[in-house]
Amino acid sequence: MTILDKITAQKAIEVAAAKAEASIQDLEKSEFFARKTNSLVANLSAENSTGIIAEHKRKSPSKGIINDQLSVEEVTQGYAQAGAAGLSVLTDTDFFGGNKEDLQKARIANPSTPILRKDFMIDEYQVYEAKAWGADVILLIAACLLPEQIKTLSQKAHELGLEVLLEIHDQEELDRSPLEYVDIVGVNNRNLKNFAENNVNASLILADKIPANVIKISESCISEPETINLLKSAGYRGFLIGETFMKDASPGTKLGEFIAKI
């Protein structure tokens, strides 16, 4: 069983427990549910955009604890002030140390900045959760979803006013993924089945394969400003980065220094 298999199996258990605790109707009564969402697509498309989606990430299965000493408010506000085009907040608890409160706190602290709910989405219920917790964008990971699930979940997200980031790793995942309701295609440079690889080769290989009508971003394994310029030359408009900044005692300051070198 791969790490991704373990994560998705655990996610099914979590979703079942969450459904028993709160109905979709309960989620729809959330203070955030009726809010007008912020567009990550618009921010990434802006002429002066840094393109950086900065991530709050306490730990990962491959790296262990990265930084669990700072509040989510401090980290995300620091990112926004430094010039992040968007924020990514992990809500998976067992494997990444996040939770729904992190997303809610980030939302309150950054009312006008687009926020991605970073999690392993396998059920429509989670799309309603994302909306109720204050997200603007959901993540769908092709490696753990069937094509019909991608279409159903992305369509539901659009119905709720959320944008959709579909994450792929290779040509096979791109070819089998319906993109009708997908706004952004992200290439994860790290294979989620084994969390291996430490380069952006996957993004460079797939750059010309992704349809031109969606925004394309590169995720993971980005630690140098020079890499951003390489990816920009290949047509990427966004860059999801977490560990590079979270390893620092002041992630926002680190992001500002990083942007100054691009």
From TrEMBL:
| Any Pfam family matching the protein | IGPS
What Gene3D superfamilies is this protein classified in? Aldolase class I
GO BP? L-tryptophan biosynthetic process
Asked if Repressor is a keyword of the record, the answer is no
Give the highest taxon in the source lineage.
Answer: Bacteria
Supply the EC number(s). 4.1.1.48
The record, for CDD domains, names: IGPS
Key words of the record: Amino-acid biosynthesis, Aromatic amino acid biosynthesis, Decarboxylase, Lyase, Tryptophan biosynthesis
Catalytic activity as recorded in UniProt: 1-(2-carboxyphenylamino)-1-deoxy-D-ribulose 5-phosphate + H(+) = (1S,2R)-1-C-(indol-3-yl)glycerol 3-phosphate + CO2 + H2O
Instruction: Please tell me whether the keyword Lyase is annotated for this protein.
Output: yes
Q: Which principal EC class is assigned to this enzyme?
A: lyase
Which pathway does the database say it acts in? Answer: Amino-acid biosynthesis; L-tryptophan biosynthesis; L-tryptophan from chorismate: step 4/5
What Gene Ontology molecular-function terms does this entry list?
Answer: indole-3-glycerol-phosphate synthase activity; phosphoribosylanthranilate isomerase activity
Q: Which residues form the Indole-3-glycerol phosphate synthase domain?
A: 4-252
Q: What is this protein called?
A: indole-3-glycerol-phosphate synthase
Q: Which organism is it from?
A: Emticicia aquatilis
Q: What taxonomic lineage is listed for the species of origin?
A: Bacteria, Pseudomonadati, Bacteroidota, Cytophagia, Cytophagales
